[in-house]
Amino acid sequence: DVVMTQSPLSLPVTLGQPASISCRSSQSLVYSDGNTYLYWFHQRPGQSPRRLINKVSNRDSGVPDRFSGNGSGTDFTLKISRVEAEDVGVYYCMQATHWPKTFGQGTKLEIK
Amino acid sequence: EVQLVDSGGGLVQPGGSLRLSCGASGFTFSNYWMSWVRQAPGKGLEWVANTNQDGSENYYVDSVKGRFTISRDSAKNSLFLHMNSLRAEDTAIYYCVRGGGAIWGQGTLVTVSS
């Protein structure tokens, strides 16, 4: 199985400051069709996950533009330009290039 | 409104069975791959099973192969997860998920305990 490794696992951030989460895969996530199926999700306590980013860098509908994703191959990053209070929770990367789809361990973002 | 509603969870003894259901609305159910993803208490996410648009292709994570069966009924816009030989480690919230994760159900809790 493809192992997804996130860092850091805990991310204390001051309101209004930027934040960055790294996600590395144990294999290339480039699929035979040329696409890279790497996604980012956000889960608030007691809620279902919500997808933020699809295929590395495409923001899902309704996602604020302070969220951005980039990367290629095996190294990916989620960036928040200015953290707001509603951004607390756990962030997961997920790969869907290889079966089984696998998630990172999660990064818990909290406000300092 | 695009929506998935999960149901069927509960308390079951080890070795028992349970069937989870997911009702879809607000979109053309038969156009999408559907999946089940689970989350053990206080833990991360695990993709459990996938089925394609007509149910002819199904994939399972190794830990549930031979015990769980994913199925769908497009006439009823419903997705199912039949779970047999349940173990304590299957205890989790189970989410119904559309496609690559754009839409999630609210989850249903399965507790396997004697």
Order of helices and strands of chain B: EEEEEEEEEEE
Integer-rounded radius of gyration of chain A: 13 Å
Low-confidence stretches of chain B: none
SSE-based structural type of chain B: mainly beta
Provide the residue-averaged pLDDT of chain B: 97
Number of helices of chain B: 0
Largest sheet of chain B, described in full? 7 strands, mixed
What order do the helices and strands come in, and which of them pair?
The complex is a heterodimer of chains A (112) and B (114).
Chain A: E1 4-7, E2 10-13, E3 19-25, E4 38-43, E5 50-54, E6 58-59, E7 67-72, E8 75-80, E9 89-95, E10 102-103, E11 107-111
Parallel strand pairs in A: 2-11
Antiparallel strand pairs in A: 1-3, 3-8, 4-5, 4-9, 5-6, 7-8, 9-10, 9-11
Chain B: E1 3-7, E2 10-12, E3 18-25, E4 34-39, E5 45-51, E6 58-60, E7 68-73, E8 78-83, E9 92-98, E10 103-104, E11 108-112
Parallel strand pairs in B: 2-11
Antiparallel strand pairs in B: 1-3, 3-8, 4-5, 4-9, 5-6, 7-8, 9-10, 9-11
Keywords:
heterodimer; A: 112 residues; mainly beta; seven-stranded mixed sheet; four-stranded antiparallel sheet; 11 strands; 0% helix; globular; B: 114 residues; 51% strand
What is this entry, summarized?
Chain A is built from no helices and 11 strands. Chain A has strands at 4-7, 10-13, 19-25, 38-43, 50-54, 58-59, 67-72, 75-80, 89-95, 102-103, 107-111.
